[in-house]
C-alpha cells in the first residue's frame, strides 16, 4: 500500500490516543474560533505537500510556514469549503482542482483557533499565484519526509513564563514548526509505526 493510500485510510479510521491536542491558549475561558487549512497533496510518484510562507508584516504568525487556510467565515458551508476558499485566495488554487479526501484531527492554536486540517489531492505543477499581501512564497515539500518521525524534532522554549514544547521539521533550509508541524505529526501518528 502506498503512503497516499495509507494516509487516506488513516484519516477515515478512529484516531489514535497519542494525538497532539494543541498549544497553550492565551485565555482558556475564551471560546475557540473555528478555522481550516488545506493539506494539498500533489499527485506524483513521490507526493508532496503545498506550504506557504506568510508575509513578514502580518499581525500573527509573520514569516512562518503554513498550510493555506484561515478562519471559517459564516458563509462557508463547512471546514472544507473554508479551506478551499482560503487556498484559492492565498495561492490561486481553484477549488475545482482539489479532490477532497476528508478532514483530520482538529488542533488548538496558541492564538485561540481550533483548526481543522482538510486533506485533498491536486495535480502536480499547477500554475499558482500567491496573494501579494499575504503570501511571500509557496513551495512543495515531500510528503514522506514531512511524515517521517525521524524528521520531526521536539523543541522547547519559554513562552509567557511557561515552558512550551513544540515540533519542528527542518527541510531544505526552511523551518516548519508550531501548529503546522503539529498537524503533520498528528497525521504521522495516525499512520502508526513508520516503515
UniProtKB/TrEMBL annotation:
<keyword id="KW-0378">Hydrolase</keyword>
<feature type="domain" description="Nudix hydrolase">
    <location>
        <begin position="31"/>
        <end position="167"/>
    </location>
</feature>
<dbReference type="Pfam" id="PF00293">
    <property type="entry name" value="NUDIX"/>
</dbReference>
<keyword id="KW-0464">Manganese</keyword>
<protein>
    <recommendedName>
        <fullName>Nudix hydrolase domain-containing protein</fullName>
    </recommendedName>
</protein>
<dbReference type="InterPro" id="IPR015797">
    <property type="entry name" value="NUDIX_hydrolase-like_dom_sf"/>
</dbReference>
<keyword id="KW-0479">Metal-binding</keyword>
<dbReference type="InterPro" id="IPR000086">
    <property type="entry name" value="NUDIX_hydrolase_dom"/>
</dbReference>
<dbReference type="InterPro" id="IPR045121">
    <property type="entry name" value="CoAse"/>
</dbReference>
<keyword id="KW-0460">Magnesium</keyword>
Amino acid at each position: 500500500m502506498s503512503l497516499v493510500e495509507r494516509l487516506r485510510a488513516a484519516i477515515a479510521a478512529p484516531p489514535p490516543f497519542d494525538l497532539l491536542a494543541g498549544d497553550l491558549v492565551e485565555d482558556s475561558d475564551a471560546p475557540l474560533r473555528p478555522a481550516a487549512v488545506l493539506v494539498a497533496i500533489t499527485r506524483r510518484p513521490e507526493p508532496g505537500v503545498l506550504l506557504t510562507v506568510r508575509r513578514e508584516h502580518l499581525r500573527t504568525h509573520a514569516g512562518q510556514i503554513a498550510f493555506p487556510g484561515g478562519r471559517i467565515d459564516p458563509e462557508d458551508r463547512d471546514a472544507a469549503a473554508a479551506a478551499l476558499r482560503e487556498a484559492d485566495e492565498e495561492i490561486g488554487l481553484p477549488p475545482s482542482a482539489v479532490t477532497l479526501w476528508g478532514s483530520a484531527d482538529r488542533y488548538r492554536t496558541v492564538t485561540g483557533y481550533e483548526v481543522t486540517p482538510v486533506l485533498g489531492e491536486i495535480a502536480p505543477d499547477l500554475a499558482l499565484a500567491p496573494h501579494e499581501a499575504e503570501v511571500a512564497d509557496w513551495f512543495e515539500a515531500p510528503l514522506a519526509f514531512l511524515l517521517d518521525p525521524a524528521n520531526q524534532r521536539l523543541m522547547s522554549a519559554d513562552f509567557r513564563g511557561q515552558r512550551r514544547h513544540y515540533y519542528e521539521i527542518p527541510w531544505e533550509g526552511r523551518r516548519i514548526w508550531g501548529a503546522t508541524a503539529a498537524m503533520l505529526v498528528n497525521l504521522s501518528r495516525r499512520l502508526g509505526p513508520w516503515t
